[in-house]
Amino acid sequence: MVQTASPTFSCEDWQKGYESLRTERSYWIDEVEGEIPIALEGTLFRNGPGQLDINGQKYGHPFDGDGMICAIAFKDGKAHFTNQFVKTPEFLAEQKAGKILYRGVFGTQKAGGWLRNIFDLRNKNVANTNVVYQGGKLLALWEAAQPYALNPKNLDTLGLENFEGKLEAGKVFTAHPRRDDRTGDLWGFGVQPGPQSKISIYQVNAEGKLSTESQVTVSGFCFLHDFAYTPNYRIFMQNPVSFKPLPFIFGFATAGECIELRPNTPSQFLLVDRQGNLQTLETDPCFVFHHCNAYEEGDEIIVDSVCYPDYPKLEPNTDFRNIDFDRVVAGQLYRFRINPKLGTVKRQLILERSCEFPVVNPRCMGQKYRYAYIGAIAKESGNAPLQAIAKVDVETGKQEFHSFAPRGFISEPIFVPRDHHADHHAAEDDGWIMTLIFDAAHNRSDLVILDAQNIAGKPVATLHLKHHVPYGLHGSFTDQVF
Ligand SMILES: [Fe+2]
Description:
binds fe (ii) ion; Neuraminidase; five-stranded antiparallel sheet; globular; 35 strands; about 5% helix; six-stranded antiparallel sheet; mainly beta
């Protein structure tokens, strides 16, 4: 019999984390429990939807929220907070109009029903998914457009980044680039979807110069949110989705709502080698947003990914704030063993508990690794909002958790090595896990710093912000202090 665990949260608490934050601020964080390590030096950048409504007109999906960057800079045991919205022309126009002018990709329609939305196929660039610092450039990323360049010192928006014309108009850049720590190169991709989808693979070097490594064409509609990287392969999971655009074109549904998982259809790994050769391998039907890491070992490529049994979408006209978590499909961490020579893929469950936002020590990107850090629910089974940080030893299977339930809700963890300049002799888990927590009890957010070697233990430091930060998406840490 299935045991239903008692709820670990209240819906009212969880919903409060989706209130818009309209203020932009810059201040020293003076309320700190514990101590910020003196050795912790650098800047944490976070991106996510800062505004989820305009004048009370609600967006239909959190992924349609306006991108807001938070920067928390650490030096000498002190921390400074700054936040700013990415000032895209669409954001500025909507702020001026005081109402929704654009349809969102995932769930937002203009008011007035389908007649106000029909044939309006423009996408609002919300620049809300990730933020990375590469080659002196701070880039706010959203996968269906070029990045927005920002001033890393004050988060002012500088404009669309086309990398000296190398990322031409109409080309897009993923929200999930991966940095190879050994070379300093940031690898990314862009997809032009269609009946035939074209994937371009990009390299941005340590000086911030972009070049195109290869282009491959695959049959079918591609929804590729993330990719996995190894020194010799760029690896994509082609989810078996179809896109039926008519409801979108005629204004009844948003583009994201027209995506469906084709039943009983295998997923496909697309392996692209450095020469641009494409190999396609089938695996069990599933949907993947995020990969944790990948590496090459003997004849095999290991890829660890969060897999869903179905495409986790909202039905049109449902309020995401009122979702029933018991009916939401849960993501679980799986290991895929791909053998390109034999053309085989084997899949094995690593973390059964519902989870998302997997990360590793940045030095392990594309390399054999031992520890995955990931957001998880605060109970063993079923589904719920993410309220815990898990550390998974992928060698032994050991799992440890730090739970913030019942009133804390976590965001993506970020691993920060204790010594960025160590030549890889330090233990892989010698460092800190940082995550922004929405604390419903105080209606504010905390930046929590955990010791990665003692993740279940008391936090090293809890930094209380003066306000909340709506649930975010992705971010990164740089050892530069801004
Ligand atoms: Fe993502």
